[in-house]
Amino acid sequence: MRTTVVVVPRERFTSLPESLSSLFRTVPDDVPVVVVEGASPARTRSALVALARERPFTLLSLPYMLKPNEARNRGVAVASTEFVVIADNDIEYERGWLAALEQHALEHGSDAVAPLTCIGPPVATTIHHAGGLLEASRVNGHVELSERHRLMDVPLAGAALPEVENQVCEFHCMLARRSLLDELGGLDERLVTREQIDFALRSLTAGAKVTFAREAVVTYMAGNRFDAVDLQYHLFRWSDRFVVESLDALESTWNVNLDRDLYRFSWAAKHRLRAAETTYPRRRRLLGKERFRRWVVSRLEERVVSEQTRAREGLVPAVPPAPSRDRVDEVVSGLPEPVKG
Length: 341
Description:
The protein has 341 residues and is α/β, with parallel strands linked by helices. The chain has twelve helices and eleven strands. The protein has two domains: 3-220, Spore Coat Polysaccharide Biosynthesis Protein SpsA, Chain A, CATH 3.90.550; 228-311, no CATH class. Helix 1 links the parallel strand 1 (3-8) and strand 2. Helix 7 (228-237) crosses helix 11 and helix 9 (260-279) packs across helix 10. It is globular. The model has no long low-confidence stretch (mean pLDDT 96).
């Protein structure tokens, strides 16, 4: 086989069995699948054991919660095929998606390929990401970096999909040559947000060809409800502490500024709050938004991060080699200004 599929946590535990079932329905039985998980609840692990009896796969289990890039690096390390698909554990797959990615990569000589990613439920109805572009605003001698999702929230039916040109592969699901991942030195484990920007910039510095395959369709099941055990992982993965560390690492590596308030408060903080609201809707109604945020969300986040910091003691994040500053400046200076309007 040409491709190994590596499935890793995104922001839940309990979505994994259903996502794997969708994966197994849509790929041949001989496609190697590696599942990486850490600290999943007992019912999720039991479901994995049952699935493995029906369709064997490699399971890498850790006793502590994993940041997604940590899980991705561990999964890629055991893959030996020409291509590796990295996929989150909350994806639903359309039939033919993997064959379409492989055929596209071979036809276009691609080093990394983004599928057409929808957002659901329902599946395959609303576009989330049809590839993307990096943009750079230049103000007072500083560069502010951003990305643009193409066709975000546009209905799939009748959409005029882009051609193959692309810069950004969202990590919901992407295909990459194993040789590119090796050349880059893996993924930066300091990051829990904007990982796709870091990967896009590293691919640009390496001269890699990144494309978009509109024939390959998957759905990121963002709208499913959270339960209490999922919320613990969500608050760990999207914790304010890790988001800040990610932004610090990106700005330092690429000598750019990011819209920190946008990513930290307008996105990550609201994302944590929304997940908690779906988990504890009654508490949210009784307490009101601000007290719910302070008394429930912030306290639970602090407890989970503290517990996992102890459980993960001694872990050192893998950081790929930084490109030379000259090469960084060359790549960043070549990025276009944001399109207005």
